[in-house]
Structure formats: structure tokens, C-alpha cells
Amino acid sequence: MSTKLAKDDFRRYGRQLILPGFGRTGQEKLLNASVCVVGAGGLGCPALQYLAAAGIGRIGIVDHDTISLSNLQRQILYRDTQIGELKVEAARSAIQAINAGLKVDLYPCALDASNSQDILSGYDILLDCTDNAPTRYLLSDTAVALGKPLVSGAALRFDGQLATYNLGDGPCYRCLYPKPAARATMGSCEENGILGPVVGTIGTLQALEAIKILSGLHDGAPTLLIFSALTVPSFRSIKLRRRKPDCVACGQNGKRRDLIDQSDYVAFCGGENPDYERLGKEPGDPAHRISGKELHDTLAGGAHHIIDVRPSIEFEICSLPNSTNIPLPELLANPEAFEPKDDQPLFVVCRLGNDSQIAAKTLREFRPQTTVKDLIGGLRAWSHEVDSSFPIY
Asked: I need a labelling partner for 294 at 20 to 30 A (CA). Which of 6, 301, 331, 381 fits?
């Protein structure tokens, strides 16, 4: 039995009710609809906010993570006082403060092949607000198996994109990307950065796409929307082909549910994400690596050179005194870029202690007579071990 609008709903949603083609019918469709948002981060926060405000009857939120200080720049549902809380619980509080009558289901877990169908089967539309390839393939395969549209967003640096998969005769994610991109070509917001309004724009458009589909305003045409904050025009739309007949997921002979059970999504996408902070802290050869405390004592005791191989934009944020900035690509292309006239010890630093190892190895090969060491754990370790006032970003 469908739920009807209450008296106060006419006032709350009045600006939508008077829209041509939307009306009371469209609003009651939203009231009786359900949307599951997978990922309550930079994309999920604005999507949840607008879905709640628009009057979606039931919203599911899937996320296993807790709120950290670095989230607050773009994850707009959260506050300083909520650091350490589960994102799903904080998000529920925020969107129910917007719309108290909203029903919210929480799933404080990571989505995987063992639980995706059970969690997602009860919703009309799925939103992919995640930031990793294995979950994107899992969500797409699950959407195909369950016959649900999947509104997928992505954002990095100044750019973003939006597509709805498995809608009508439109493609699924595997149709467009049968094989994942090489691990080396994929980066995270932590590694590459993200401007908050960029991810906010894409998350808001995901909510809009879901509302259009649920209310009957969507034309059903599969498209890929590309957004760039630094170009004019900022948006361009690419028409997508129909689903591929031979797609292993949604094609005529697609495996559908069997594909989920038989797939190792992490292995398919190149394995676990490297823990660069842990890798940068591995001690290695004492002749080649130096700890923060050892470097501090060494710098105080004699002449030396420091090369910082971070990008120039990061060097501008913070740096060790008297260090020289030579970004890693420049140093690898031209080791002679730093050519002191003496053989004083040479110390190489970077953010986490990984790029510095590559640079130090190159410099040792080019200057075998010089002592070349890199900082274990990078400048983040320096902040923890030596100077707590040194910025961490």
C-alpha cells in the first residue's frame, strides 16, 4: 500500500509540487521510494543531504569508516565534534535533522561479495559514492543481478564524472571497462588532492539523477557527464552505447549472480591498495636510510645537503630549513639537476618515505662517492618523531 502525502508535506515540498511534470504524483513516488547510498564520504554527503531534503521515503547508508579531521574539508554532513564517530551514525543524525520523518537504514560495514545482494536488494536505486575500483565492479555486478539502476560518481583533483548504469538498455560498468585500469594509473584523494566543491557537485548530481529516475522525469538515455572546474564550459555530455551483448555481467549470456560469487574483486583490480605510509616506514639498509631522530642529530652536527623530492606545490606548504626542492620526475629525468661541488652527506626527503627511496637510489648511482640517505617515513615521521609543530597534510 502506497503512502500518501501528509498535510504538512504540501508545505514542505510545495516548491517541487508545482513543477511541471512533477506534481503530487512525482512527490508521492519519492515518498514511496528507497535509495541506498554506498559510501558516506565526499560524494555520499551531498547526495544524502539532497535526497533527504527532497523527500525520499527510505534511505540506506553503507560505510564502515569513522570521521577524521581530513574529511571535514569536503564531507559536509560532519562536524569537528564528531571526529571518531561512525560516518553512518553521524550521517543519519544530520539528514534526520533535515527531515525528521525520514526512515534511515544503517550498514556500518564494508560492502563485499558476501553481503552486497542481501543489503542492496531492498532498494529501488543504488548510488555508488565510493572511491575504489573493486567496489565499483562489485556494485555494478550486484546492480545487474538485482535489476537496479546504479548512479555512479567519481571525483579527483578538479574533475569529476557521473554515469547511470544498468538503466533500460544502457550499459553496466563492465560494458565500458571490461578490465580495470592499471593500479599505477589510479590515485586517491589523499595522494592527488580534491577540491571540496568538485566532489560536492558530483554528489549533488547523483541525487538529482536518482530523483529524476524515481519521479519519472528521466529520459532513459545512457550518458556520461564529464565535469571540470577549470574549463569553460565546465560540463560535457557523452552519449553511451547500449549494453554489450557479450558482456560477462549484463550480456545475453551474462553470469549475473554467479559472477559475484565467483569473482575476487580485489585480485581482479590488481590486489590490495598499497599502504604507502607503512612502506615508507620500513627501515631498510642502515647505509641507505635514516630515522627522523638520527637525521635531526646529524643536521645539528655538520655540513650537509637536503633534497626534497615532493611536488613544488607541497614544498610550498612546508619544508625543512635549507632544503632544496627537486620534484622526483625532474630528478629522475636529470640527476645532474643537483650538482654540489662537495661530497657532503646528502639526505633526501618526501612526504611518506617512498619517493625519497627512489630518488636516493638514483643519486647513489650517479654520485657513488657521496653518502646518500633518505628519511624513513618521510616528513610525516619527522613531525611525529622530531617536531610536532611540523604540518601534516
From this structure: 331
